């Protein structure tokens, strides 16, 4: 069975935009399996789209084509990219949407989509998801080579997301909240790999003015309603409330500084 094509957008599902993208794919590759990642990315929020895309890619089989469309610059001169990593394939505008994936995965080729032979015509200047990205995804799935879609691009010229990377400062890892899920869990940019030696009961997690003792393994390790920290399924440190919403706590939200440090033995 061939691998699927995934769709991630900020289109919502009230209108027919997502269905039009699926129609463009199925008109070319009718046997394709299409998986909806999410269409509820806040409008134009490239950072949230990048994080959502990075969260899901490891769950998919090799050669999956991931189509991501959070594109406030649609119709402008911004590039549209096709990217191969070691096992996955991506199509997205060059606006930082692939930033989280490229920071974590080793890519093999990056090309700019320029060959309109693979596009749907006429091309709407406001709907490149339907007229460029979706048909290219279908052709790629049917066996076209990435090089056929346009010229190779140097990785150094890609648009990067703004924002500071986690830093080790006086023995503490310092990062920030970068996303909030529908449960109100606050996801940070502090990865499990970074915090490998900081996970356990002997550390303090500071989120804004709030301090949490220890990094838990699961939510129910703390009483209902208690604030806690844990490594979530995304592989990142989360600040959460067992049975509640950490995002509802005053002073906690996207951009909140989060630090993790070991407690001295006397504490």
Number of helical regions: 4
Quickly give the CATH architecture of the largest domain. 3-Layer(aba) Sandwich
Task: Name the CATH homologous superfamily of the largest domain.
Answer: S-adenosyl-l-methionine hydroxide adenosyltransferase, N-terminal
> Are there runs of 5+ residues with pLDDT below 50, and where?
none
User: Please, how many domains?
Assistant: 2
The strand count comes to 14
SSE order, one letter for each helix or strand: EHEHEEEHEHEEEEEEEE
What is the 3D form?
elongated
Can you tell me about this structure?
This protein has 267 residues and is of the alpha+beta class. The chain has 2 domains: 153 residues, S-adenosyl-l-methionine hydroxide adenosyltransferase, N-terminal (Rossmann fold), CATH 3.40.50; 96 residues, Elongation Factor Tu (Ef-tu), domain 3. Helix content is 16%, strand content 28%. The protein is built from 4 helices and 14 strands. Strands 7, 8, 9, 10, 11, 12, 13 and 14 form an 8-stranded antiparallel β-sheet that branches. A hairpin with a 2-residue loop joins strand 7 and strand 8. Helix 1 runs parallel beside helix 4. The longest helix has 14 residues. The chain starts with a strand and ends in a 5-residue tail after the last strand.
Give a quick summary of the entry:
The chain has 267 residues and is of the alpha+beta class. Helices cover 16% and strands 28% of the residues. It has helices spanning 17-28, 46-56, 99-104, 128-141, and strands spanning 5-9, 34-38, 65-69, 80-85, 89-93, 107-112, 167-169, 172-180, 186-191, 203-207, 210-213, 227-231, 236-241, 257-262.
């Amino acid at each position: 069975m061939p691998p699927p094509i995934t769709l991630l957008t900020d289109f919502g599902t009230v209108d027919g935009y997502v269905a039009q993208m699926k129609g463009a794919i199925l008109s070319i590759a009718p046997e394709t399996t299409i998986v909806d990642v999410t269409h509820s990315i806040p409008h134009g929020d490239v950072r949230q789209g990048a994080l959502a895309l990075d969260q899901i890619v490891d769950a998919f089989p090799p050669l999956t084509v991931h189509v991501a469309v959070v594109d406030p610059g649609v119709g402008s001169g911004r590039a549209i990219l096709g990217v191969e990593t070691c096992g996955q394939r991506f199509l997205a505008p060059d606006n930082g949407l692939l930033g989280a994936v490229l920071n974590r995965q080793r890519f093999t080729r990056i090309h700019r989509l320029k060959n309109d032979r693979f596009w749907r015509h006429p091309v709407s200047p406001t709907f490149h998801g339907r007229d460029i990205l979706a048909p290219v995804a279908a052709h790629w799935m049917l066996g076209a080579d990435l090089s056929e879609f346009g010229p190779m691009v140097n990785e150094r010229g890609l648009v990067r997301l703004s924002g500071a990377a986690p830093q080790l400062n006086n023995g503490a890892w310092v990062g920030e909240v970068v996303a909030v899920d529908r449960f109100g869990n606050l996801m940070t940019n502090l990865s499990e790999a970074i915090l490998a030696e900081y996970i356990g009961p002997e550390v303090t997690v500071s989120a804004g003015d709030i301090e949490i003792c220890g990094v838990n393994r699961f939510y129910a390790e703390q009483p209902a309603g208690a604030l806690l920290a844990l490594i979530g399924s995304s592989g990142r440190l989360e600040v959460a409330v067992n049975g509640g919403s950490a995002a509802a706590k005053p002073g906690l939200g996207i951009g909140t500084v989060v630090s993790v440090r070991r407690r001295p033995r006397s504490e």
